[in-house]
Amino acid sequence: MNKSKITAYTALATIMSASVAYADLSLSGFHKGVVSSGDNTSGVSNTFTTSSVYVTYGSTLDNGMGLSAGFSITGASMGFSTAIDTGMGSVAFGTVHKSAVDAVDSMPAGATDLKSNVTLGSYIDGDTDEANGIRYTSPSMNGWTLGYSMGETVANGDRNSSVAVTGSVAGVALAAGAVDDNDGSDDNFYTIGYSVAGVDLGYGMYDDDAGSEATVIGLSTSMAGLSLGYTYEENDASTDTDMSRYSVGKDLGGMALTLMFTDTDNGSAVDNQQWQLTYAIGF
């Protein structure tokens, strides 16, 4: 693995995409921590959000299908995932599972240390309820890819499932999906991304189908070796909340640092302002 890039945190996602080059065995690791200070923090806190070791393996089956497998140790827990490239799409399954929606619902741009989707509201991407799930991802068809996933656990007489589609039109990146949640709600999202003059622009909507709808606008760019980002997020619910987030990051080779400032207004008299320094180390 190229140590000049912090890529270990995407190891499992890479495995489950079944698009890796089949290179026997590899070992990688990732550690992430956040130092916080602000209105809701007493003094300064240092939280370790991720600490994992990944072992990955790739091979080709006798019938020509690609096989990739991964094992992870995160804290006191262990997980595994397996993916098979059938030539007509990939099938992924295991205890470490990304739903079809979670695999594609990240914002195309914004202020964050690692790209994610939404902070406000109660939108759920289906991962937790799908548990030991299975996911199918189609091959690209005229630039469009379809994903479908389903969980193992049955609740309320129904299995949790999700479906998502990604593609582009005239240089505009599009993604949309929905989660058939076994609690009776159908969470859904869509994102739009576009790049112009070295600036990435993004728009997203995340709806929990239960009275909470978050709208997100973001932009990202780079200058003088620094990554810069801005996100504005607004959640329309029983109590409306809006948030502005700014970030500046630097990749130092074996370590990446991101400084973020977040200002959240939940309609009360006092806003919550927070500083966070995220450090990520991968090998």
Keywords:
283 residues; mainly beta; 16-stranded antiparallel barrel; 2 helices; 58% strand; globular; disordered N terminus
Strand-pairing-aware structural class: mainly beta
User: Mind summarizing the main beta sheet?
Assistant: 16 strands, antiparallel, barrel
Instruction: Please list the strands of the largest sheet in the order they lie side by side.
Output: 1-2-3-4-5-6-7-8-9-10-11-12-13-14-15-16
* Fraction in beta strands: over 45%
Question: Average pLDDT value?
Answer: 84
Spatial extent as radius of gyration: 19 Å
Strand runs, count: 16
* Total count of helical runs of at least 4 residues: 2
Classify the helix fraction into a percent range.
under 10%
What letter string, H or E per element, gives the SSE order? Answer: HEEEEEHEEEEEEEEEEE
How far apart are the first and last residues' alpha carbons, in Å?
7 Å
Shape by Cα distribution: globular
The unreliable regions are 1-22
What would you call the quaternary organization? single chain
